[in-house]
Design brief:
The complex is a heterodimer of chains A (about 280) and B (about 375). With about 280 residues, chain A is an all-alpha fold. Helix content of chain A is about 65%, strand content about 0%. Chain B is an alpha/beta fold and about 375 residues long. Chain B has 2 domains: about 250 residues, P-loop containing nucleotide triphosphate hydrolases (Rossmann fold); about 100 residues, CBS-domain (Roll), CATH 3.10.580. Chain B contains 15 helices and 16 strands. The chains are: A mainly alpha (about 280), B alpha/beta (about 375). At the A-B interface, helix 6, helix 7, helix 10 and helix 11 of A face helix 2, helix 4, helix 6 and helix 7 of B.
Chain lengths: ~280, ~375
């Protein structure tokens, strides 16, 4: 096997046509992924939001994370054996596959949503209520936008895992990119297996890239830490005065015209700010 | 006007220690915060001051009693409407990190249905009014210092022009220098706006500085004393209030007495660059140095001048009192001066003369005698 044989596989028109062609397999794979994520979102988001908002039943989040230790493949066979005799159609395989994938997707979504809502400063929530926002307005106008980056990182992690793991659907005779792995293994066609793996990896990377772009567009610069960096570089370019150092930050209030650009990121989610190197916990000397 | 009538807040006893009645946060409070004035609620932790404040906008529901704003019982109003009509400023500002300063300020007008443009132009005015650079409007809260965030918090509370404001320790999370600045600007703003303000703090100095009237609460939510700051310092009703109001009461009370017309002593002065001989020619051990505009710069010890008076030999320990300032500032100027002569300047900062501590004390005693011999009605005006 060489790079040339892989290249040949990908350029062989036969591999791009029909029900075992790449486009069809990719679509099947995406169908399992999207369906799984939708179901998982419907379950995990309200639950995570409620736990984050009320602070109750936090063990659910920890418990869900612990459940990730259950081997997915084993679980798939267990569920198939249980569900299989009950249903007389393709659904006998679809339901177990989607079920185990949903179980896989829930923990990151649940922790992401929970951590996002939990990262909302009590003061911001208090101010929102005190200014006369209704419960729904507090959720949609304040909590959701602030929770967004952590939620999206949960979504990205869930998407990656589901795309990678959806290959197991093939082991219970369903389609998707897993077919190349299972069939390749059965016929000792290792080129096909390698190409299938490459396709899964590419699909995962593309999906992650799309979500990363979405994240960049949807998350407010005020919480992603981007605003701080932008303003800082702008201030450096245009302002003759040196930047006030962080420890003297509060003092810079003495003159309203001073460029007091300070990452007092105590309002931002820890992960997001830490990732972009914003000085998050240093605002109070 | 905000009026509390027999307001009690009792929390259900959830601790399991079975005291039976639960804990009382506010106990039968009757209080009036007059229109256009600042009423400060002050007391130690656990005195129910924040609970009292939060009952006004129904963030907390009273167990019994009524709270009315301009005669309307708050319990009868729609809670969101009620809150949108009350400015609310809290300790850590509570700005929305995902919104720019401008969009933070427009929050309440937008909730009330004001169109975006009108709300924004009004917000810009307010941003300047609270002392922020208009360029800050596009920034996010994370890019502001604590003091700047607090200014935005105040602007946001003022955005819908509510007649009533609730302020819960708004200045306590910033450093002392910024705090003093914010307090002064807050007073300046209030003198323009004349809002009815209920202000919570644990800092008695802040209470005395900002309040038109101060309500001291004791643990358990009982009103201990409600008086003007001057009366509170001069005449605490009991040991608790006296202890809480703290030391140096006599001295601090002088803050509320305007400096009387004293006959000031003309002070011979030297300018920067004066020779050692010029300084010694004056004949006193300490000589006052003034700048070009006649502003006092500091004292010079004649013996310490080697060739000429430079900025490095200036003694800067002395404070400068203003002719229109308080008796406290006047006395402090005299006490802090190395020469024993307190420096007094006019409103433009130019030297007027000096005064000795003994003369200020004499003025204080003369004032006290005048108050003691006057009728109670006159006493009130004198204070």
């Amino acid at each position: 096997m060489s790079l040339a044989t892989i290249w040949d596989w990908f350029t062989d028109p036969a591999n791009w046509q029909g029900t075992d062609g790449v486009p069809h397999r990719v679509l099947e794979h995406l169908f399992y992924t999207v369906l799984t994520l939708l179901i998982a979102l419907v379950i995990a988001v309200p639950l995570g939001a409620w736990v984050g908002h009320s602070g109750r039943l936090r063990w659910l989040v920890t418990g869900a994370n612990a459940a990730r230790a259950v081997p997915t493949l084993g679980l798939l066979f267990a569920v198939s054996m249980f569900v299989g005799p009950l249903i007389q159609s393709d659904l006998a395989f679809v339901i177990p596959s989607i079920t185990v994938l949903v179980l896989l997707a829930i923990p990151p979504l649940l922790s992401g949503t929970y951590a996002g809502i939990d990262s909302v400063e009590p003061a911001a929530r208090d101010a929102a209520r005190g200014m006369g926002m209704t419960g729904w307005q507090v959720l949609t106008k304040v909590e959701a936008p602030i929770a967004l980056p952590l939620f999206l990182s949960g979504l990205r992690s869930a998407t990656l895992q589901v795309i990678a793991t959806a290959t197991i659907a093939a082991s219970v005779s369903l389609g998707g990119l897993g077919r190349y792995l299972i069939d390749g293994l059965a016929s000792r066609d290792y080129v096909q297996m390698v190409c299938g793996s490459i396709l899964v990896a590419v699909l995962a990377l593309v999906a992650d890239g799309i979500l990363a772009l979405l994240e960049k567009r949807a998350v407010s610069p005020g919480i992603s830490g981007r605003a701080t960096r932008v303003a800082r570089s702008r201030a450096r370019n245009s302002d003759p005065h040196p930047e006030p150092d962080l420890d003297g930050a509060d003092r810079s209030d003495t003159g309203p015209r001073q460029p007091a650009v300070v990452g007092s990121g105590s309002t931002g989610p820890v992960e997001a700010t830490a990732a972009t190197g914003t000085p998050s916990e240093r605002d109070r000397p | 006007m905000i009026r509390f009538e027999g307001v009690t807040k009792r929390y259900a006893d959830t601790s399991g220690t079975d005291r039976g009645d639960g804990s009382v946060a506010v106990d039968d409070l009757t209080l009036e915060a007059p229109t256009g004035k600042i009423t400060v609620l002050v007391g130690p932790s656990g005195c129910g001051k924040t609970t009292t404040l939060r009952m006004v906008n129904r963030m907390i529901t009273p167990t019994s009693g009524t709270i009315s704003i301009d005669g309307r019982d708050t319990a009868s109003l729609d809670v969101a409407e009620l809150r949108r009509g009350i400015g609310y400023v809290i300790q850590h500002a509570g700005l929305f990190p995902h919104r720019t300063v401008l969009d933070n300020v427009t929050t309440v007008p937008r909730l009330l249905g004001t169109d975006k443009r009108t709300a924004r132009s009004r917000a810009m005015e307010l941003i300047e009014r609270v002392g922020l650079d208009p360029a800050m409007a596009r920034r996010y809260p994370a890019q502001l210092s604590g003091g700047q965030q607090q200014r935005v918090g105040v602007a946001r509370a003022l955005a819908a022009d509510p007649p009533v404001m609730l302020m819960d320790e708004p200045f306590s999370a910033v450093d002392p220098v910024v705090r003093e600045q914010l307090q002064n600007e807050f007073l300046r703003l209030q003198s323009d706006l004349g809002k009815t303000i209920l202000f919570v703090t644990h800092d008695i100095d802040e209470a005395v500085k900002l309040g038109d009237q101060v309500a001291v609460l004791r643990v358990g939510g009982v009103l201990a004393q409600l008086d003007s700051p001057a009366k509170l310092l001069a005449d605490p009703v009991d040991d608790f209030v006296a202890g809480f109001v703290g030391r140096d009461r006599g001295y601090r009370a002088l803050s509320f007495a305007a400096a009387p017309e004293l006959s000031l002593t003309d002070e011979p002065t030297v300018a920067l660059g004066a020779s050692a001989d010029d300084v010694r020619a004056i004949g006193t051990p300490w000589v006052l140095c003034v700048g070009d505009a006649g502003e006092p710069l500091g004292w010079v010890r004649a013996a310490a001048v080697e060739s000429e008076v430079t900025r490095t030999v200036l003694h800067r320990g002395g404070t400068v009192a203003s002719t229109t300032g308080s008796l406290r500032a006047l006395l402090d100027a005299a006490l802090s001066s190395p020469s024993g002569r307190g420096v007094v300047a006019d409103d433009d900062g130019r030297l007027v003369g000096t005064v000795r501590a003994a003369e200020v004390i004499a003025a204080i005693e003369a004032r006290r005698d005048a108050v003691a011999s006057s009728t109670p009605a006159e006493e009130a005006t004198a204070r």
